[in-house]
Amino acid sequence: MRQLKPDHLLLNSAQCHNEQDQDPETTLDFTIQRLKKGNDLSEIAKLVRAFIFDDLKGLEALSALRLEPESFVTDTMSHIDRYLPPDGCLLAANDRSGEHKGCVFLRTLSPDVGEIKRLYVHPDLRGTGAGSKLMHQIADEARQLGLRTLVLDVGKYATAAQALYRKLGYREISVYPGGETDPAITPHLTFMQLDLAP
């Protein structure tokens, strides 16, 4: 029988740091919260907006594409149910005051495959290990959903994110089926996969 996890997991940031990233003077405590239907998602919408604006800025720096960020925000938030239980998961990293300062989304593409979307950590929590912890936790959530594989796309310009994913065991693949990437953006993305250990 599966043991259910609490919706809030208190983590001392020192436990979440990579040893090389630790700085006792600047560590913060944060919690990881599993969101569900009925939660106020207005702070998540702000994080999604910040993620998309940053992402499109990187895309526009390397291409002639000019895209409308608000349409991506609206699309994400109008389809938020696909990232909530029972078929998905949305995690938030909260600061000491309880404010959402990071997020990561998971949706089921098939009975075995899940897609990671919208990993974002606000500058206030960067360097605390929150991004890495969100990715570890979302992989655990995927296992609980019975998924065996995680896939994601990341901008070719997002070298720090790519480095994090590789460190976590993701490998580069070709475009995966079921993703919702705009064909105009596809050439500017790297696609990655993680095979989940049982």
TrEMBL record:
All copies of domain N-acetyltransferase, residue ranges: 51-197
Catalytic activity, EC: 2.3.1.-
Transmembrane segments: none
UniProt entry keywords in alphabetical sequence: Acyltransferase, Transferase
Presence of the UniProt keyword Acyltransferase in the record: yes
Keyword RNA-binding listed: no
MF terms (GO), sorted A to Z: acyltransferase activity, transferring groups other than amino-acyl groups
InterPro entries cross-referenced by the UniProt entry: Acyl_CoA_acyltransferase, Bact_Acetyltransf, GNAT_dom
CDD domains with a match to the protein in the record: NAT_SF (cd04301)
Lineage: superkingdom: Bacteria
PANTHER family assigned to the protein according to its UniProt record, in alphabetical order: AMINOALKYLPHOSPHONATE N-ACETYLTRANSFERASE-RELATED, AMINOALKYLPHOSPHONATE N-ACETYLTRANSFERASE-RELATED-RELATED
Protein name, entry field: N-acyltransferase YncA
Organism expressing this protein natively: Roseovarius albus
Classification of source organism: Bacteria, Pseudomonadati, Pseudomonadota, Alphaproteobacteria, Rhodobacterales
Gene behind this protein: yncA_1
